[in-house]
Every structure is written in structure tokens, then in C-alpha cells.
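QA checklist item 7 of 12: single-chain prediction sanity check.
[x] sequence parsed
[x] length recorded as 341
[x] structure emitted
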Amino acid sequence: MDRYARQTIFRPLGPDGQARLGRATVTVIGCGALGTHSAELLARAGVGAVRLIDRDVVEWSNLHRQGGFEESHARDRAPKADALAAWLRRINSTIRVEAHAVDFNFTNALGLAEGSSLLVDGTDNLPARFLLNDVSYRLGVPWIYAGAVGSAAHVQMFSGRNGPCLRCQMPELPPPGVLGTCDTEGVIGPAAAVAAGWQAALALRVLAEGDAGPSAGVRVILDPWNQRARTSAVAADPQCVVCAQRRFEVLEGRFAERATVLCGRSAVQVLPAQTSGAPFDLAAAASRLRSLGPLEEKSRFVRVESAEGFTLTLFADGRAVFDGLTDTVRARTLYSRFVGQ
């Protein structure tokens, strides 16, 4: 216990709280700027199990703000979940770390989140957060939202049992272009670190005390660049589709898109069509890609650079990322052409 001595003498946590941390399982959805910092803080604090979920690979543009990644990861385009898991295991060999290099979507979300004590948001888009909100309230597990755009950090806790929830504040997805993103506004590393630090502190409190109630419903906005901070209370909507009516439309497939533009890069992800047949055969698909150019083969994915101006990365779960494209229609067409329906 000497390892955690400085935090166990912090009275609100104490030895009993530390013991509860050691029995907890936290699932981090998204291993970008938010998820990497939050996961590291939780791993160092002694959370018993950290489960990592991310669909993407490490890019050079990630390195200025995302923890746990090195230049070698960007050169190799390593799956983020795998790279971060290896880093956390080196940080703390006494905890369990799981890596799931998959897309978090309505077909697998409940299974990936099952058994969690807490869900930590490291995603970069609202459809994923709508899904996370559904999962939280379906399982009765609290989740902590965080976001960073420009120099502003946003954090909020949701109990997973009572309102308010995310859909109380945002009943429907806003039209494209309404909200700023990292692509339009940029982002600085300290803003992401501030958001992740606040998020991790909330996570430790909830896990140590076993109650998300005191923190739920408070929205926090921090701006380290302009030295501003404010909090506001958010009211529950008595007609909310999720926390009041207990309808989980996103988990049922609403808002699901087969092709989406990835935040922060010129790339489109395409998901495979749902089937009831055998698992995706990566080796067979790889053989069909050889006509595009030299093939790089890894255990979890294969990659090929096409003379048509894009790089195709095909993963073991059947999804594909087309770097160099922003046209979702073309990406779906290319997927059907080179991978299959």
C-alpha cells in the first residue's frame, strides 16, 4: 500500500476508498486526448481493472496532446487501444488492463460495457455519446462526459439511474456544422488534460464513495488559456426519452451510420453490414486487397496504399478506414468493391 500512501492519507478517500478503487472496473471509451490522460490517472491511482475501447490507430497529429503514445506508434500506425494498454501495464503491473481495438457501436456496446463500475467518455462525436448515454442508463452505471475544443474543457457526470442525462440537454442530434470541432476550432493539449484531470477526479470520488448523486447534474466549463471557469446546475427533463421514459433508441440502431468521417483527420470509417454468418475473415479479405498495392499485414489489421490516392486499413472486425478521403459515398463504394458487402 506504500504505492498509494499519498492518496490514502487524503481523508475523503482513505484506506477504505482505496480498497473500493481496487475492486472497480472502469471502461474508457475512446483513447484520444481525453481517454489516454484519464486512463493513465486511473491506472496510477490503483483502479483494479481498466478496459480500453478505441477503433482508431495512432497518427502523428495525435502526439501533441495524447498520452501514452510515442513516435514509433505513429510510424507503425498502431491501434490506440493496444498501444495505450501496453503503456498502462508498464505503469502499474498490479492492475488488469483490457484492450479492445474495435468500433463502439449499437451492436456491441452493451457487451463491451458489461461488468463496469463506471464508464469514462473519451469519444469525439455526439452519436457515440448518445450511445454511451443509452448504455449507462440501460445498465444503471454512471458515466462521465468530457470534451475539449479550442482552449475550453467541458465535464459532466451522469448517474446512470436518475436525470438529468445527456438527452435532457440535447434531445436530438444538432445539424452538422452547428457545433465547433477540433477540425474547425483546433485544440490545445492543456485543455484536454484539464478536462481529463477533472474527469478522473470525479471518477475517483464516485468509485471511492460508491455514489454518483452529489456530482450528477453539474456542468463544468474550464478555459485554462483565458483563465476562466464556471459551473452550472442542469435540470432533468421529466419527458426525457432516456432517463424518464427509459427508451433506448440509439441502442436499437437509431443514428447508426455505416460510413462516418473521423474527427481530426481526412479519413472515413466504414462498418461492415450486419450479418448472422461466420466471423469476418481478415486473411481472405487481405488476399483481395493485393491488387491495390503492397500489403502491410499485422495481427489486428492489414493496410494498403492505393494509387487512387487513399490508404485503406482493414481491421479484424471487418471495419475499414480510408485515409485520404472525406466522401462517405465513395468510401462505401470502395468498401463494397474491395472488401465486400
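[x] summary fact logged: The two ends are 53 Å apart (CA to CA).
[ ] second reviewer sign-off
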